[in-house]
Design brief:
Layout lengths: L5 H4 L13 H17 L1 E4 L5 H14 L4 E7 L21 E8 L9 H7 L1 H11 L5 E2 L7 E6 L5 E4 L6 E7 L7 E4 L10 H8 L7 E3 L6 E4 L5 E4 L9 E6 L1 E2 L8 H8 L4 H9 L9
Helix pairs in contact: 2-5
């Protein structure tokens, strides 16, 4: 397939993201806003055409050898060391296996379908409308801006929080079983870490846990800064789970944290070091 256009990616009759103000556009935005306001999550089902999903799947398969796989035991804040300032039974000192991989942003062909979809202005504007943000920018991070999360058989992405206020993911290939997205909406806030509720989930409690069965082509917009979330283990014998991650920010030029970038990609670039030195925190949460 040649250079893909918006209509190659999106069924514009169902989701007319090229026609803001149309009845179907307004309805899609309203439904997404309702989900984001109520439970911090919106799923736009079948947004991406099956043929386009197949193109994305082929590109992920092609670039999969560049995946950085890692396995570590970590707490929900991506820390791996015991903190003696907190008791033994505490989220800060509860460590669970994270085993997955990420294809870094510098692996993708600038003219390929992943990059093309990520940067389509109409899609970016639609996501901004859903999030009720005046304008969005593709994440400037050279590794984490555009990635694919890979869960091979036996792997899981355990309970964690995001450092960004929101994330946009597109399921490209579902596992035969397992690989389900789970989350607990608004389990913490800027004024309340919610440690007791978080510990209950880490101990296996299911209170407040929502499970989504996403399908290839579904776009998920998720507020993961305050909602604990995970992807369940993909069992042995299943095909892998592949999900594209489209990272956008409300401000231009944003670069990710050095520690988390190293954990997810196994390396950092000079841009990460420079951004870390200039960083100003937006809240006082552990991370």
């Amino acid at each position: 397939m040649g250079a893909m256009k918006l209509a190659d990616f999106v069924d514009l009759d169902t989701y007319p993201i090229d026609r803001p103000g149309s009845d179907d556009y307004v309805a899609a935005v309203a439904a997404a806003r309702d989900g984001l306001r109520s439970v911090g999550c919106a799923v736009v089902t079948n947004l991406i055409r099956a043929a386009a999903v197949a193109e994305l799947a082929a590109e992920i398969k092609q670039e999969k050898p560049t995946t950085h796989f890692s396995m570590q035991t970590m707490n929900p804040y991506f820390h791996t060391e015991v903190n003696d300032e907190f008791p033994e039974r505490h989220p800060v000192n509860t460590f669970i296996e994270r085993s997955s991989g990420f294809i870094p942003g510098d692996s993708w062909d600038p003219a390929g379908p992943m990059n093309r979809l990520f940067r389509i202005p109409e899609l970016v504007e639609f996501i901004a409308e859903c999030l009720e943000i005046p304008e969005l920018y593709p994440y400037a991070d050279p590794l984490a801006g555009l990635t694919a999360n890979i869960l091979d058989p036996g792997q899981q992405f355990t309970w964690h929080f995001d450092t960004n206020d929101f994330a946009v993911t597109l399921l490209v290939q579902e596992a035969d079983e397992g690989g389900l997205f789970e989350y607990v909406p608004a389990i913490r806030s800027p004024k309340d870490e919610g440690f007791e509720r978080i510990q209950n989930v880490l101990d296996g409690g299911r209170e407040g846990v929502v499970t989504l069965e996403l399908r290839p082509g579904d776009l998920q917009i998720f507020r993961g800064r305050h909602s604990l979330h995970a992807v369940t283990r993909v069992p042995d014998g299943s095909r892998p789970r592949h999900a594209a991650i489209f990272a956008y920010t409300a401000e231009p030029g944003v670069i990710g944290r050095v520690e988390r970038t190293t954990q997810l990609f196994g390396r950092v670039l000079p841009a990460h070091v420079e951004a870390e030195e200039a960083r100003v925190r937006s809240d006082a949460l552990i991370d």
